[in-house]
Design goal:
Elements lengths: L1 H19 L4 H54 L8
Helix pairs in contact: 1-2
Length: 86
């Protein structure tokens, strides 16, 4: 959210003002550096979320395989070992 705010609100304002007032140019440069820092933090956060999502997906797949194996075992246990009814 911070990067979006900087891109769509702050950067526009500072760029326009720096065209007319040279004193604002250092503020624009600091703003752009600040945006780089926020973007780096965003990338780290997104990478952590991706790892968590992959772990959750793997757990769900393992749980589904486990329940499918239990159901298959239960189905085998309910059939007679000596006689198969059609």
């Amino acid at each position: 959210m911070q990067c979006g705010f900087i891109d769509f609100v702050c950067a526009f304002v500072y760029k326009e003002f720096s065209r007319f007032h040279v004193e604002i140019t250092p503020m624009l440069e600091r703003l752009l550096n600040n945006r780089k820092e926020w973007n780096a933090l965003k990338e780290v956060h997104e990478a952590k979320l991706a790892v968590i999502e992959e772990a959750n997906k793997a757990k769900e797949e393992a749980a589904q395989k486990g329940s499918a194996a239990k159901q298959a075992g239960a189905a085998e246990g309910s059939q007679s070992k000596t006689c198969i009814l059609s």
